[in-house]
């Protein structure tokens, strides 16, 4: 009996070219709080949960990150990111890949560590309506990546066992979360992480971007 796959997609850096806009938005929010952190260090944290992000800030900078300061950082990041909405574009092949899966009758959903206040910008760029397509955001789970809660919730929204899920993401945090919930992790290079990093974090295959994945989708179980 053939096991029918479902696809769970990360959003930033996976379907939408938005990682560096997030980096700059976080840089803006950190600067406003007088917290100096190099841009490359911020990039390495994109995709992890906000709580883990602030924990690592404390570890790397020595700044005290109170609940009030963490909330100001979150709000500052969200506001700065929304100001860049006009620059957000789908990655090559993203819309085509989602359309192909829908036409092939293969269920798919989106699970992002971002809250809806920023995810809405990306969904609009993709022309994805969250009232019609299942979308799981940070607002809906207790913990975000590298914890597996987002992907477990996404599989539940599709009514599918998590073991049948192909998790597509661009960061090591996606791959680590996929391993923890026994899903198959597929990495994309479009978020800035390297092939070796993604493979060492659990990716069974690594592709350049959504367009490259679409060309090889049969390799990860995407067949009509």
TrEMBL record:
<dbReference type="InterPro" id="IPR036412">
    <property type="entry name" value="HAD-like_sf"/>
</dbReference>
<dbReference type="GO" id="GO:0006281">
    <property type="term" value="P:DNA repair"/>
</dbReference>
<dbReference type="GO" id="GO:0005829">
    <property type="term" value="C:cytosol"/>
</dbReference>
<dbReference type="InterPro" id="IPR023214">
    <property type="entry name" value="HAD_sf"/>
</dbReference>
<dbReference type="InterPro" id="IPR023198">
    <property type="entry name" value="PGP-like_dom2"/>
</dbReference>
<dbReference type="GO" id="GO:0008967">
    <property type="term" value="F:phosphoglycolate phosphatase activity"/>
</dbReference>
<dbReference type="InterPro" id="IPR006439">
    <property type="entry name" value="HAD-SF_hydro_IA"/>
</dbReference>
<keyword id="KW-0378">Hydrolase</keyword>
<dbReference type="Pfam" id="PF00702">
    <property type="entry name" value="Hydrolase"/>
</dbReference>
<dbReference type="InterPro" id="IPR050155">
    <property type="entry name" value="HAD-like_hydrolase_sf"/>
</dbReference>
<protein>
    <submittedName>
        <fullName>HAD family hydrolase</fullName>
    </submittedName>
</protein>
């Amino acid at each position: 009996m053939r096991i029918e796959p479902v696809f769970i997609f990360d959003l930033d850096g996976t379907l939408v070219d938005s990682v560096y806009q997030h980096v700059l938005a976080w840089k803006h929010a950190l600067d406003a709080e007088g917290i100096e952190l190099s841009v490359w260090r911020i990039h390495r944290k994109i995709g992890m949960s906000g709580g883990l992000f602030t924990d690592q800030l404390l570890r790397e900078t020595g700044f005290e990150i109170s609940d009030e300061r963490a909330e100001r950082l979150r709000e500052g990041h969200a506001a700065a990111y929304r100001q860049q909405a006009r620059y957000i574009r789908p990655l090559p092949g993203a819309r085509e890949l989602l359309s192909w899966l829908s036409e092939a009758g293969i269920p798919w959903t989106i699970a992002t560590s971002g809250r809806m206040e920023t995810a809405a910008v990306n969904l609009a760029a993709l022309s994805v309506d969250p009232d019609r397509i299942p979308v799981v955001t940070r607002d809906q789970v207790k913990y975000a990546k590298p914890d597996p809660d987002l992907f477990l919730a996404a599989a539940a929204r599709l009514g599918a066992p998590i073991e049948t899920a192909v998790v597509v993401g661009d960061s090591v945090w996606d791959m680590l979360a996929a391993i923890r919930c026994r899903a198959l992790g597929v990495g994309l290079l479009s978020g800035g992480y390297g092939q070796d990093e993604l493979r060492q974090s659990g990716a069974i295959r690594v592709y350049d971007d959504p367009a490259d994945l679409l060309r090889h989708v049969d390799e990860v179980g995407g067949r009509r």
